[in-house]
Amino acid sequence: MSSIVIDVGKQMNGATFRLNHRTAAMLSTRIPGWSPASPASDSVFLWSDRQWDIERMRGPMWTQVVMLLTGLNEDQIRELGGFNFISPADDHQVVYESLAA
Fold this sequence. Notes:
This protein has one domain. By secondary structure, it is of the alpha+beta class. 28% of the residues lie in helices and 30% in strands. The model has no long low-confidence stretch (mean pLDDT 84). The longest helix has 12 residues.
């Protein structure tokens, strides 16, 4: 499993993305000066004017969400082993996985 895990909460017309609490703890120990308060936001909501379809998200969009939630750049994400997006409501099903940002 990748080092960075993002929890996805799907809704009717969008999805909420949050940094997994275990990932926040890991980043606090591995990235000097990183704290849960470091990133600009603790959650990101993407909205659609029609019913949400996670398949519409393209590779770069996933990376942008990780960057917003962690405050890390693409090289740092890659060095940590990439990322997984999981759905806690669906038995932690992997929604998207990238080994390199």
